[in-house]
Amino acid sequence: MAEIMNKSSDTHRMEKIVSLCKRRGFIFQSSEIYGGLNGLWDYGPLGVELKRNLKNYWWRVMVHERDDVVGMDGSILMNRAVWKASGHEDTFSDPMVDCRVCKTRMRADQVIEKKGARQCPNCGSKDLTEPRPFHLMFKTYVGATEDESSITYLRPETAQSIFVQFKNVLEVSRKKLPFGIAQIGKAFRNEINPRNFTFRSREFEQMELEYFCRPEQGMELLEYWKEERLKFYENIGISRANLHVRNVPNEESAFYSKGTYDIEYDFPFGRQELEGVAYRTDYDLSQHQKASGKSLEYFDEETKQRFIPHVVEPSAGVDRTVLALICEAYSEDEAPDEKGKMEARIVLRFHPRVAPIKCAVFPLLKNRESLVVKAKEIVDLLRPCMTVFYDESGAIGRRYRRQDEIGTPFGITVDFETLGEKDPSLRDTVTLRERDSMKQERVKISDLLELLSMRIA
Ligand code: ATP
């Protein structure tokens, strides 16, 4: 019973999150005015900021703050030969099952097993087809003729452009093993059954690192990246208690992988993968070397050895992480209204580092020119360094509430004390309110930039 209660409250929580995302402009259904298109989503004004902050932080930690990683940005369409060599053209498919009664189409792992019999999760019927492979790559044509010779695919992962550019990047960056190449970009999969909001989409973004190494370093580096990646999620505000490492059993992982684990998050709809980390051996570079006839070997100056590097790949999803950030941040509590009476509030407790808007600036009254001028000066002071929202409409409590709901960590109010009208010693000070504790402190305008910059870094 308790489990059923939790399930329904989790479903309810997810519904509230989806509705907030639309109401406040985080995520919309793609092509909504035409009825949408399954598995495709658009990010609104706040969603795009959240997503960028996430990608920028990943890039900062994985590329800028390291000596041993460089970045690249590859094209989405590539020569079809890439997908033949990587094995995607032949094997990138999911087993699909159809229910003959309600016509639901599902992935084989979504079929329910009850007392040894397979059942449709939608209507409960046992009349299901045998699983058959469904190809996940979107096919397209390049150029004016639509024939066999012009076929290629929208990439289903960003990694392959890193592998095929390995030699070029190695030459220009002059890195020594171990070193990595990082990329953030779009990927496309014609998922059989997109679901759970943006969790499983047909178009999504990945943040991938291919970390090349000597064969004997592979297992150790697979372990090294575990802590690094868990720390990353903690540093964007996801609690360690909601993160889990699942070792992927051999029969589930790719045949060439010597070790794979997933980093999972407790979403309201269950524990699901955010990122996969795999030790892929030298499979990818070997395949491309064989198929292209071009050497993708590394020459070790010291030992004079020539060999194909091995690789460890932490591969994370931007959209899934954005969704995890929203789920983690969503909370409901109470805050005092204008008259001090407690009322319910929705608050997104984003880490200031990822919050779409860092700071809101309010003049206490919109019809007092001197307050408005001062508030706008503060906006101009902060804007070069952070996203700032200026709001002069409505009671101050309501303005705070609107910002709480979108996760703005700081609110600045310009009042009569700022003008020095009551106490000259308070001239050019403002109240700075913190979203979670709702505590207010009096801060000099001249200290604001440094103080806030430190807190959002
Ligand atoms: P799943 O088992 O959930 O389909 P996967 O193991 O096939 O995922 P990978 O190929 O390891 O996923 O891709 C790496 C990351 O890319 C995933 O951890 C996930 O964050 C993201 N990703 C993969 N497929 C999707 C999708 N359809 N929608 C959103 N993100 C995705």
Brief overview:
This protein is an alpha+beta fold.
How would you sum up this structure, described in words?
The chain has 457 residues and is α+β, with helices and mostly antiparallel strands. It is built from 12 helices and 25 strands. The strands form 8 sheets. A 7-stranded mixed sheet has the order 3-11-12-18-15-14-13, with helices on both faces. It has a 5-stranded mixed sheet with strand order 22-21-23-24-25, sandwiched between helices. 32% of the residues are buried. Bound molecules: adenosine-5'-triphosphate. Adenosine-5'-triphosphate (ATP) binds next to strand 12, strand 15, strand 18 and helix 9.
Question: What are the main properties of this structure?
Answer:
25 strands; single chain; alpha+beta; disordered N terminus; globular; five-stranded mixed β-sheet; seven-stranded mixed β-sheet; 457 residues; binds adenosine-5'-triphosphate
Strand and helix map with partners:
Blueprint lengths: L1 H22 L3 E3 L11 E3 L1 H20 L4 E3 L8 H7 L1 H4 L1 E6 L6 E3 L4 E3 L2 E3 L12 E4 L3 E3 L9 E3 L5 H6 L1 H8 L5 E10 L14 E11 L4 H18 L7 E5 L11 E9 L2 E10 L3 H10 L5 E2 L6 E2 L2 E8 H12 E7 L5 E7 L10 E5 L5 H14 L5 E3 L5 H11 L3 E5 L14 E6 L5 E5 H12 L1
Parallel strand pairs: 3-11, 21-22, 21-23
Antiparallel strand pairs: 1-2, 4-5, 4-8, 6-7, 9-10, 11-12, 12-18, 13-14, 14-15, 15-18, 16-17, 19-20, 23-24, 24-25
Helix pairs in contact: 2-9, 3-8
The structure holds adenosine-5'-triphosphate (ATP).
Adenosine-5'-triphosphate (ATP) binds next to strand 12, strand 15, strand 18 and helix 9.
